[in-house]
Design a protein that fits this description.
The protein has 393 residues and is α/β, with parallel strands linked by helices. The protein folds into two domains: 185 residues, Rossmann fold, CATH 3.40.50.720; 178 residues, Rossmann fold, CATH 3.40.50. Helices cover 34% and strands 16% of the residues. The chain has 14 helices and 15 strands. The strands form two sheets. The protein has an eight-stranded mixed sheet with strand order 3-2-1-4-5-6-14-15, sandwiched between helices. The protein is globular and about 60 Å long. The two termini are 22 Å apart. The N terminus is likely disordered.
Length: 393
């Protein structure tokens, strides 16, 4: 047990510390996940070590992203077994949510910083509440609707989801996304915009993009989409549509590739595409649900994995991988850690209480604290009591 100058133990995160903060970086165990929560270089383990913090990295944690254990050692970090990383660290820095086999490491005073996507994962919510672990979720860090950590991965997920969908469509229907193909993107946030750029910059022999139906319920996002794309493309290739179930139902029978990217930070996603709508699509069509980590926006969606990426329902191939950026771990790790490191450094230097009091964006990332749910979207999604963080600290 660590004792601080005020005599209170709080996992290394009281404002006045007399012992060294320990940051732990475990190896990801989610199937196919090769990203790592921290790089060995500058804006990573090297900088934290230089500032006097202790960094424990699980053996081979960075291997899938191209980082060797020796690079972490040279940066000043220590390589350790999983048990040591989890039990000795004050702050755990991961990529994806802890899995059930990691729940045994949960304890009061432990802080975990990662993508949690808690709304569809009640078992994890319950484990966090019971143990007293503080969950700081990458996906809700930010202010005024801007979530910079999530944005970095949404951009990659949009690109990966689009490319995977195109590949499967070619296998299923024998077509490239040229002038005879029809694509619908549902949700025009960061992932939707990234997918649209892939669709509208074709590598097919014709050099002509597919017909794109861009759908969102937010008029401002539709207008933003028009400003970005319409000056560069024939209006006949792009149709911007405000979401309406009847209108979408009339179009879907013509759609070859449907990409769902809707997202409200922290909340369970609404099923905007019903089973009946999916049934209306032609055999061999493809749907990609990028929203699956928050429950998915298609009624027929179920999580798949990097090993088994698809399943077929009503003749339609479903691609619902929750960790799509993990398919390109080197690019994704660099993009992710570029956004997360400043928050990790702030938590390490200032301690949790001071950090969240001084940084509202970081405070917005706290989903569970001291056994209480502190994110309203999460609480509303699962029908639980919401406790504002500012009232608890």
């Amino acid at each position: 047990m660590k004792i601080y100058s005020n005599g209170v133990y709080n996992g290394g995160y009281m404002t006045k510390q007399t012992t060294q903060t320990i940051i732990g970086v475990p190896k990801e165990i989610k199937q196919g996940e090769k990203r790592v929560g921290m790089k060995p270089s500058k804006k990573g383990a090297a900088e934290l070590s230089r500032k006097g913090f202790s960094v424990l990295v699980e053996k081979s944690a960075g291997q899938g992203s191209g980082f060797k254990d020796k690079q972490y050692i040279d940066s000043g970090a220590k390589i350790a077994a999983a048990h040591k990383v989890w039990t000795e660290a004050d702050l755990i820095v991961k990529v994806k949510e802890p899995l059930p086999e990691e729940f045994r490491y949960f304890r009061s005073g432990l802080f975990i910083f990662c993508f949690f996507h808690l709304a569809p994962n009640r078992n994890l919510v319950n484990a966090l509440i019971r143990s007293g672990v503080t969950a700081i979720a990458y996906e809700t860090v930010g202010l005024d609707g801007l979530t910079p950590i999530l944005k970095s991965m949404s951009n990659i997920a949009g690109r990966v989801g689009c490319e995977e969908g195109k590949r499967i469509l070619m296998e299923n229907k024998g077509i490239l996304l040229g002038s005879h193909a029809n694509v619908m993107i549902l949700g025009l946030g960061n992932a939707g915009l990234a997918a649209a750029k892939q669709i509208l910059n074709p590598l097919n022999p014709e050099g002509v993009p597919a017909n794109l139906f861009a759908v969102d319920s937010n008029p401002e996002k539709l207008e933003n989409f028009r400003k970005i794309f319409h000056p560069h493309f024939d209006y006949t290739k792009i149709q911007c549509i405000q979401y309406n179930p009847r209108a979408i139902s009339s179009i879907l029978p013509r759609i070859d590739l449907l990409i769902g990217t809707t997202h409200i930070p922290g909340q369970l996603q609404q099923k905007l595409i019903t089973k009946k709508m999916i049934q209306s699509m032609t055999p061999g069509s493809v749907v990609v649900d990028i929203s699956i980590d928050q429950g998915g926006c298609f009624e027929t969606s179920m999580p798949t994995s990097i090993a088994v990426r698809t399943f077929e329902k009503y003749g339609v191939t479903h691609y619902c991988v929750p960790n799509m950026p993990g398919i390109v771990p080197r690019e994704s790790t660099n993009a992710l850690t570029a956004e997360t490191f400043s928050y990790i450094a702030e938590l390490s230097a200032n301690g949790f209480l001071r950090a969240v009091r001084e940084n509202s964006a970081l405070a917005a990332g706290v989903n569970v604290y001291n056994g209480k749910i502190t994110h309203k979207g999460l609480a509303d999604s699962i029908g639980a009591k919401y406790s504002p963080l500012e009232q608890l600290i």
